[in-house]
């Protein structure tokens, strides 16, 4: 029955499920990697400032990727930018498999830079692809699909934090990285084979200057979002896990579980709001 139902799905739904699966797999590894890096290097004796420096390139290159991502997607196609993002995340994970003595601050910053680029390429590709898959005039369905993708991202990021702490406890840092690299490589290979080739590719090549909005309000909103998300990540990604570990002796699993719970609550409230607005 399940196989029959899958065969009867429209091509748009199948592509949506594939894109969502790619995004979910990436988000899990991204959340786990952040928690692994914070807790592992804190355990090695790195100061909170040094740990924060590890994420500096992650955020900076994420901002740059957000700036040019839409332009790249229009020129190359969203399928390519999504697969490039998955491939770069695999490369970032593989960089951390090296012996522990090679994991200097600068080296990990470079790996995190790749991960930051990969994250925003993947996120931009996923959200933009959904807009193309929804039939014209079906804005209500578009709202539902984007809400599910965005809400699930926040919950899965929390689950990824928990997995990062759990994997660090069970497999240690290097073993956890090897496992995530292997699993994400399988997702990437499947995506290369199945994801629609011409998805989101523009007929004409857009100029680079077109990445900036003509609306002053949108540009101001984008700048505000930059500072908002930068402040959020400094607090939730670096400061809070270190504070809980030092003050309350929380291990990786407890800290990650607590944050996963918060994000799950956020997802629940988002879905409840969506149902109320559309009922």
Tally of helical segments: 9
How many E-type strands? 0
Helix content: over 70%
Q: What is the CATH architecture term?
A: Up-down Bundle
Q: Separation of termini? A: 30 Å
Mean pLDDT across every amino acid position: 78
Based on Cα principal axes, name the global outline. Answer: globular
CATH H-level superfamily: MFS general substrate transporter like domains
- The unreliable regions are none
Order of helices and strands: HHHHHHHHH
* Major β-sheet annotation: none
What's the CATH class, please? Mainly Alpha
Total number of domains: 1
Structure report:
It is a single chain. 82% of the residues lie in helices and 0% in strands. It has a single domain (10-278), classed as MFS general substrate transporter like domains (Growth Hormone, Chain: A). It is mostly helical and 279 residues long.
Question: Secondary-structure map with pairings?
Answer:
Layout: H1 2-7, H2 11-43, H3 48-54, H4 56-76, H5 78-95, H6 105-133, H7 139-194, H8 216-248, H9 252-278
Helix pairs in contact: 2-5, 2-6, 2-7, 2-8, 3-6, 4-5, 4-6, 5-6, 5-7, 6-7, 7-9
Give a concise summary:
82% of the residues lie in helices and 0% in strands. The protein is mainly α.
């Amino acid at each position: 029955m399940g196989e029959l139902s899958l065969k009867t799905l429209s091509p748009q739904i199948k592509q949506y499920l594939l894109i969502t699966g790619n995004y979910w797999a990436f988000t899990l590894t991204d959340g786990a990697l952040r928690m692994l890096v914070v807790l592992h290097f804190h355990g090695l004796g790195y100061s909170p400032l040094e740990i924060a420096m590890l994420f500096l390139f992650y955020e900076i290159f994420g901002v740059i990727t957000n700036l040019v991502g839409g332009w790249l997607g229009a020129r190359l196609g969203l399928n390519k930018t999504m697969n490039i993002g998955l491939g770069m995340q695999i490369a970032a994970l593989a960089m951390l498999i090296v012996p522990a003595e090679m994991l200097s601050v600068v080296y990990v910053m470079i790996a995190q830079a790749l991960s930051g680029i990969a994250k925003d390429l993947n996120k931009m590709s996923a959200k933009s692809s959904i807009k193309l898959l929804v039939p014209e005039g079906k804005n209500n369905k578009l709202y539902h699909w984007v809400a599910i993708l965005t809400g699930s991202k926040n919950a899965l990021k929390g689950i990824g934090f928990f997995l990062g702490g759990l994997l660090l406890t069970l497999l240690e840092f290097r073993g956890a990285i090897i496992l995530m690299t292997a699993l994400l490589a399988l997702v990437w290979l499947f995506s290369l084979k199945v994801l629609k080739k011409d998805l989101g590719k523009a007929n004409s090549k857009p100029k680079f200057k077109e990445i900036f909005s003509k609306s002053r309000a949108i540009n101001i909103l984008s700048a505000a979002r930059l500072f908002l998300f930068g402040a959020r990540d400094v607090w939730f990604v670096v400061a809070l896990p270190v504070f809980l570990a030092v003050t309350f002796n929380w291990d990786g699993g407890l800290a990650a579980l607590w944050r996963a719970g918060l994000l799950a609550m956020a997802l629940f409230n988002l879905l409840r709001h969506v149902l109320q607005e559309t009922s």
